[in-house]
Design goal:
The chain is of the alpha/beta class and about 500 residues long. The chain is built from 21 helices and 15 strands. Helix 13 runs parallel beside helix 14 and helix 18 crosses helix 19. The chain binds iron/sulfur cluster.
């Protein structure tokens, strides 16, 4: 791993994953790829070595290595909590340090970030060019307002600059892997004993109004070519002996031609890897059977799909777009069973204007899916607004919902609960209704244990025990207070992918 003697910039990825579930910090590597060789930098990952105080480590580096800029990548939820804790410590000891933040949280809440006393600049939009140009401007004494895609506060006024355009990922240099110890991110997952991850495209062509990606992508999608992905897979196999690859794109399967090209690359290079990616049901339903066969034969094991709802009217309100429909999801679930590829379906339940009716309808739909394809994975989330507007957002706003106005408020217990999507004080669902949803989830997850859990392999005694104990509840639609299942899941260290990843 390369470490420069003098360091101008520290990229910091605050803790957000459980130990041994950390993924490669792709967003940071992508931004760093554009300043490689031009500015000195280091990457500090708070998800590694939990025994170390990363804030203290950064303070020491600032004092000893001449660091001037701290660039922090922030996702909403637990990462925001670790960020704020560390940021306050770092700035207390290094008041001269310039702090730049980017990622989904700052993108969607840039006013709150720009307003924070310890943050100097916010990257709003695709970050590679904006970050590089901002450092150039600050280092050469140019005005930051000449840089596209940033926000900051000056004399109490919020300054925002023009939106920046995404870069074609095919024109970006390869990730500077030599800046991290890649072995730290090679993990055993249900896909394979040596799994790495990659982000192979920018954005998504859709505008779902519950999705934070919309503010970033603005309807644009650009993917790395299948050939480039083949080269990368080859490189990863040769260098780190991977046997599995996760694609963390927002919408990996947007272009059938590219996916076919990637599969053909795997064949021509004789690469035997399992892989996983995220896609849309309506897009994948259009794929030809020969492509499905090709994907299966080339190691595609599971696809994450935003099913969102079993109700077409709710899909319309979500602005899900395309040709997505409940019947289409059922068709796809059946098709994937035929091709032996697991659909991992995520749902958003409790949507306005009638959250309870919506919840019950989707629960019925989920049961239907499980009957059709028992190996389908189900991930459930409660509806929570994102600031991209839309019919549902307007409705919850009318009910009195508003976002916090400071980072301190964002990390207070009420908002932590909302971000963790556990039972929380939200005006569109009562506590009782949220508990009902959580109870159904407990019973469903016990009766159909996820195949991605590391400690509960399908067919193992733990797997059958969960099924046996939960069977009468699932078949009897009896979800009330499943204390015994909560206890059992805890005893068996049952991990859910939506909580800790694979
Ligand atoms: S298709 Fe998926 S990634 Fe794209 S906007 Fe909708 S939810 Fe977001």
């Amino acid at each position: 791993m390369q470490v420069d003697e003098q360091t101008l910039i520290i990229f910091y990825n605050p803790q957000c994953a459980k130990p041994n579930y950390q993924r490669m910090p792709a967003a940071i590597l992508q931004v760093a790829s554009l300043i490689e060789g031009r500015f000195s930098y280091e990457i500090v990952d708070g998800n590694l070595r939990s025994e170390v105080s990363h804030a203290q480590q950064i303070v020491d580096k600032v004092h000893h290595k001449g660091v001037k800029y701290l660039a922090i990548s922030i996702m909403p939820g637990p990462q925001l909590v670790s960020t704020l804790k560390d940021l306050r410590i770092i700035k207390k000891h290094c008041p001269e340090l310039t702090v730049i933040v980017g990622g989904y949280f700052p993108l969607n809440h840039y006013q709150v970030c720009a307003n924070d006393r310890d943050i100097d600049y916010v990257i709003v939009g695709p970050g590679e060019r904006s970050f590089r140009d901002l450092i150039v401007a600050l280092e050469t004494g140019s005005l930051p307002e000449t840089v596209s895609g940033i926000a900051f506060e000056r004399n109490g006024e919020l300054v925002t600059t023009n939106r920046s355009h995404p870069m074609n990922p095919n024109h970006l240099p390869r990730y500077p892997y030599h800046r991290i110890n890649v072995e730290d991110y090679v993990l055993p997952t249900f896909l394979g004993s040596r799994t790495l991850s990659h982000h192979s495209s920018f954005g998504c062509p859709f505008f779902c109004n519950f999705c934070a990606v919309v503010s970033l992508a603005d309807g644009k999608w650009i993917g790395e070519t299948g050939e480039r992905l083949g080269e990368l897979a080859q490189y990863m196999v040769n260098k780190w002996q991977i046997n599995a690859l996760e694609f963390h794109d927002n919408n990996f399967f947007t272009a059938e031609k590219r996916v076919k090209e990637f599969c053909n690359q795997l064949i021509s290079r004789n690469l035997k890897i399992s892989w996983w990616g995220e896609g849309r049901a309506d897009t994948l339903l259009k794929y030809k059977d020969e492509t499905w066969r090709l994907m299966r034969d080339c190691g595609l094991k599971m696809v994450f799909l935003g099913a969102e709802s079993g109700d077409d009217e709710t899909l319309r309100r979500m602005n899900k777009g395309g040709k997505q429909s409940a019947s289409g999801v059922l068709k796809l679930v059946k098709k994937m069973k035929d091709f032996d590829i697991i659909p991992e379906l995520s749902f958003i339940l409790g949507n306005p204007p009638n959250p309870v009716k919506d919840m019950k309808k989707s629960i019925k739909f989920i049961r239907k899916i499980k009957k059709l394809n028992p190996s389908a994975e189900i991930i459930m989330y409660r509806y929570d607004p994102v600031p991209v507007g839309g019919e549902m957002f307007d409705q919850v706003t009318k009910l009195g919902f508003s976002f916090p106005t400071s980072l301190e408020e964002w990390v207070d217990p009420k908002w932590r609960k909302i971000q963790k999507r556990t039972t929380a004080d939200v005006p569109w669902l009562t506590e009782k209704e949220q508990i009902f949803l959580a109870e159904f989830q407990t019973v469903l997850n016990a009766y159909y244990p996820t195949s991605t859990a590391r400690h509960i392999k399908p067919g193992s005694w733990r797997y059958w025990l969960l099924k046996l104990v939960s069977g009468f509840r699932y078949h009897g639609h009896f979800y009330f207070r499943p204390y015994e299942l909560n206890w059992l899941q805890q005893k068996l260290s049952y991990q859910r992918p939506e909580i800790s990843g694979f």
